Amino acid sequence: MQPFRYHVFACDQQKPEGAPCCSARGSRKVVDALRGEVAAQGLADQVQITACGSLGLCERGPNIVVYPEGVWYSGVTAGDVPELVRSHFHDGKPVERLVNRDVQAVRVEIESNKSKMQAGMKAKDAAGALPDDLAQTIRGFQDSRAVLTGIELDAFSAVANGASAGQAAAQMGTDPRATEMLLNALAALGLLSKHDGTFHNAPVSARYFVAGSPDDARAATMHTAHLWHRWSTLTDCVREGTAVARRKPREVDDRWTRPFIAAMHRNARERAPHVVGAVGTAGVRRMLDVGGGSGAYSIAFAQASAELHAEVLDRPEVLDIAQVHIDRAGLGGRVTTRVGDLRADDFGEGYDLVLVSAICHMLSPGENRDLLRRCRHAVAPGGRVVIQDFILEQDKTAPKMAALFSLNMLVGTEGGASYNESEYAEWLREAGFGEAIRVRLPGPSGLMVGRVG
Ligand SMILES: C[S@@+](CC[C@H](N)C(=O)[O-])C[C@H]1O[C@@H](n2cnc3c(N)ncnc32)[C@H](O)[C@@H]1O
Ligand code: FES
Question: Could you tell me if 395 and 418 lie in one domain?
Answer without folding.
Answer: yes
